[in-house]
UniProtKB/TrEMBL annotation:
Highest rank taxon of the organism: Archaea
Organism of this sequence: Thermofilum adornatum
Keywords for the protein's UniProt record, in alphabetical order: tRNA processing
GO terms, biological process: tRNA processing
Protein's name according to its UniProt entry: Uncharacterized protein
Gene3D superfamilies, alphabetized: Metal-dependent hydrolases (3.20.20.140)
Pfam families, per the entry: RNase_P_p30
Entry-linked InterPro entries: Pol/histidinol_Pase-like, RNase_P_p30
Length: 256
């Protein structure tokens, strides 16, 4: 990437699985293109469009593959757009089952852990790229989590949508997230701030967002700027190499 930061909105407009199932290929392509256009207009170089998974379904891999193929087709037309699957479930067996079905069909996979067991698992499982902090107080990070998060270079995410109740900033959520981030910042882990789920995708200018995070979440601006550009792009690029068979193991590239 160039010296000028090329920001990626890692959690752009969200499409629930049930809605994804209803959309025709043409409508899905239009939705992805429209989302990308809004992100670019806001100042982003690209975005990760997101489908949210809240339970395992028999046709899960078919729906996720449909989503990923539509994103890939849009990218071939010149849009810097990526596929993201965001998982919100309440138990580890279901999370494992979902991961086994979708990993090969996503540029990014994120989880929002609701308890300590899910936090520990999400920190360690190599199929998960992003830990998205829940809007209320997140489960604590233990030392073993931190070691794995750092070794695997995972991204810790705060979504803008999680900071608001309606149109108003929620001071309780601000304080809770600031507390959750203390250890993360101290250990110099990668942090990103993304738009998150909204009824209508309305991203803020990424530079304004970085300033906002400095003021309200006390996140270093220079580091956040790097993580929201190079950090995200590196993770996605590595996943795409894995999916194409060029990196079967982290850090080992196959010569063709």
């Amino acid at each position: 990437m160039s010296k000028k930061a090329k920001y990626i909105d890692a959690y752009a407009a969200e499409l629930p699985l049930d809605r994804l199932k209803e959309l025709s290929g043409e409508d899905l392509h239009k939705w992805i293109n429209d989302t990308y256009s809004v992100a670019v207009e806001a100042g982003y170089a690209g975005c990760a469009v997101t489908t949210r998974i809240t339970r395992y379904k028999g046709d899960l891999y078919l729906l996720v593959r449909k989503f990923d193929e539509a994103v890939a087709n849009t990218r071939e037309e010149g849009a810097l757009v990526f596929s993201r699957c965001h998982i919100e479930v309440t138990n580890q067996p279901e999370l494992k089952r979902i991961l086994g079905n979708i990993r090969r069909y996503c540029d990014l996979i994120s989880v929002s852990p609701q308890d300590r067991q899910l936090m520990a698992f999400s920190s360690r499982d190599h199929r998960i790229d992003v830990i998205s902090l829940p809007p209320e107080k997140a489960p604590p990070f233990f030392s073993g989590d931190i070691v794995e998060l750092k070794a695997q270079e995972k991204l810790i995410e705060v979504t803008v949508s999680s900071l608001f109740s309606g149109n108003m900033l929620n001071p309780y959520r601000i304080r809770a997230l600031r507390d959750s981030l203390k250890t993360i910042k101290k250990k110099n882990l990668k942090i990103i701030v993304s738009t998150g789920p909204q009824q209508i995708y309305s991203p803020r200018d990424p530079r304004a967002l970085i300033s906002f995070a400095k003021i309200f979440l006390e996140i270093d601006q220079a580091k956040l700027s790097k993580d929201m550009s190079d950090g995200i792009y590196k993770r996605i690029s590595e996943n795409q190499l894995k999916r194409s068979g060029k990196i079967p193991v982290r850090g080992v590239e196959i010569e063709k």
